[in-house]
Amino acid sequence: MSAIPADVDTDAQPPMTVPLRHFVVALGFLLAGALVGALDAVGVVPGRSTLVHVHLLLAGWVCVTILGAMTQFVPVWSGTTLHSQRLAELQLWGVTVGLSGFVVCLLTGAYAWLPGFGFVLLAGFWLFVYNVGRTLLGVRPWDVTERHFALALGFLLLVTLLGLALAVSYVRPVFADWPVTRGTVRSAHATLAVFGVVLTTIFGALYQLATMFTQSDLRGIDSPLRTVESVGFPLGVVSLAAGRLAGNPLVGRIGALLLTAGTVAMAVVLARRLATRTVEWTPMLRRYAVAAAAMLLWAALATPAWIAAPLDPARLFGPPTAAHLLRFGAVGFVVLGTLYHVVPFIIWVHRYSDRLGFESVPMIDDLYDDRLARADLVALSVGMGLLVLAETGVLSSIGPQAAPSATLVGGAVSLLGFALFAANLIGVIQRHGSTSVATLLCPPLGRLGPSADDDVPDDTERARS
Fold it and tell me: E strand or H helix at 184, and its extent?
């Protein structure tokens, strides 16, 4: 794979407001999730606080970011046109309203409303699946990134169906006549969501992003490692989820081994790309380095735990001591790093690319504040480290309050890091974008669709290359 694919066509991208609106809403979910996590450490969050925390971060921040990123880059990678810009707008409304209502119900105990908001959330995600799926159907043959994206769309359909069933189960005994229990459905739902939707999308994107932005090629052992991940990881996701749904430990154990092997393969490919980079370190690449290390460490901890008990609800994402390594380290830092390039890139293409060669213009990496980027990296690394240490139990030897204190401080420092990160990207949009954040979120009546400012310059292909 070339460092920058020759067929990347930025003229195929949707209007600027479509992905940016997704990213800004996702940042809101990120800050809300981080706040809930920090407050939950002192026990002041009512209702189902853990479910709220996880859904705000994974379904809110990560998945809404994925919706915006795939809507933006599937047409770019594949050299085609997005099936429908209108559906891309509607999908965000559906997911935002559905998830917000879902979270409020979990916090207040208004469970009777959960199925309704769950259905709205499902509708939003299904609009996305249909829109991007129709876009991909017109592309042949699929490369490794497109295959991962297609698999992730399939996993998302299953996740939302199981999620809606779980929401209905709060008010009706829907599993009474099924050959499964609420617990096994919950385990399968979580497995397909984190590993099937989120990590499959991330791994597919990294094959493009890690080569493009390190200016290096896959070579040597990278090709067989890619095969291990591309084949083994999705099979592992299906097998682990099926084993947990059916209560079959052998099927689950096989899936766990395939899944962790695929994760290790992806981590090694990413680390090799970073080690052979031909460019300077950027905020994107530094966060990818943290993610690669977190993937390897998580796999080392998860493999023996899952071999011993792949169906244990306490080991849903590996051992309890590795939960933050997976969600915060392996997933979070990839999303953080990617957004540090994607948001400035979208702004730069629409605002400055047509001026290149005619006047002095800033480069993409000049749009954000380097000092804020360094500060949020330090804060988030320290915060994650404290949260991981608190989970491992190694602090118990210091005293009974050491682990809870580390969790509280780690959550607060992480919240600070996320706030700095959000402020940096919001600043990029405010200073350099053609649309303010307020207008982006609440467009005036009559301008609910793309604006004229969203037109992509004719020479963006030259600027991109």
Answer: helix 182-191
Could you report how far apart the first and last alpha carbons of the chain are, in Å? 16
Q: What is the C-alpha to C-alpha distance for residues 127 and 137, in angstroms, rounded to an integer?
A: 15
Are 211 and 205 in contact by the 8 Å Cβ rule? The answer is no
Residue 436 phi/psi, 5-degree rounding, is: -70, 165
Whole-structure pTM value = 0.90
Q: What is the CATH number of the domain that holds 312?
A: 1.20.210.10
The two tokens of residue 317 are 């994402």
In whole angstroms, what is the distance from residue 208 CA to residue 8 CA? 11
CA–CA separation, 66 vs 176, rounded Å?
A: 35
pLDDT tens digits along 46-72: 999 999 999 999 999 999 999 999 998
* DSSP helix/strand/coil, 177: coil
Q: Please list the alpha-helical segments (H only) found in 309-369.
A: 323-324, 333-351
Peptide bond before residue 173 is cis, with ω within 30 degrees of 0: no
Q: Does 321 fall in a domain?
A: yes
Mean pLDDT within 440-444: 72
Domains in the chain, number: 1
pLDDT tens-digit profile of 105-157?
Answer: 999 999 999 999 999 999 999 999 999 999 999 887 889 999 999 999 999 99
Domain coverage including residue 371: 10-464
DSSP helix, strand, coil percent of the chain (3-state; round to 5) = 75, 0, 25
